[in-house]
Amino acid sequence: MKEQLKKWIAVLFLVIPTSFMTACTNQFLVEDMVQEEESEQNPEEGLIVVGVSQVGSESIWRTAHTASIQETLTTENGYYLIFDNARQKQENQIKAIRNFISQDVDYIVLSPITETGWDTVLSEAKDAGIPVILMDRMVDIEDDSLYTAWIGSDFEEEGKNAGYWLEEYLEKKEMTEEDINIVVLQGTEGSTSVIGRTRGFESVAKKNQNWHILEQVDADFTTAKGYEVMQYFLEEYEDIDVVVSQNDDMTFGALEAMEEAGISTGKDGDVIMISFDAVKAALEKVKDGEINVDIECNPLQGQYIDRIIRDMEKGKLEEKMFYTVERVFTPENVGLVIDDRTY
User: Fold this and answer.
1) Cβ-contact 251, 281 below 8 angstroms
2) Looking at residues 122-130, what average pLDDT do you find?
């Protein structure tokens, strides 16, 4: 009996520590899971929460624009970024904004695909007490209090600069009395950049009676569409003197189409090539003489957004409109910046 009792006691001592360790381990696991869950549920604790709705990723410029935002609105800089790629669809942007509102973000940053159709959702953001910062593009709304600030380019001025450059170039070439036939590759219909660049260039063209804009066609800011539209222009019009392409990606497609057709461009070429954005790959073509001029559109807007939010956090936002600094690049001056271009 004593021997049997000793065996039971020995077993009991083996079981109790194991059970105790299991219980402790389970307790620690539960506590770790709770802490981990709390950490996952509150990743933005102490940070400024910003919801960003980006147009998409249709171009080199847009990729640089997105990178500027993501590299600035970081946790190291005090931000928790919720980023949404709308993939060129306005309905995706409206859905994203409503998601941001439901998540009670501190700020909403929007690059609107087109200018119209924003009154309702921006009113919802205002009712929720969430400031909206517009970047790159503008909105056409009745109540401009629905957005707090805007940062971007003066697109109309960009269009004018393209026109002013063409005036000077034609004068140097002694072509001011000749008929000048122009085709225009436009970007996404209804976007601020298209509206502004078109209006600006047309305002200069109207002053030159010998300039003839044969046609303006939407090429959606993409290389593939630029190629397709340029093929159409070449089939439709026998005599084209100037191509105005409202972004570099479309320009790359247009250049490919013209090269296949045996048409040279740029310095001493058959066609004068005017482009916009000034990404590095395009500036290389300016340097090589394939593109005559590239009107810069600055994508590095993250720092401006950071400044606006910092000012708003301090309650001292003094401006509503912020314009980026931009230049005009030709073969004569492009060498000064091309090596430092990061996009």
Assistant:
1) no
2) 98
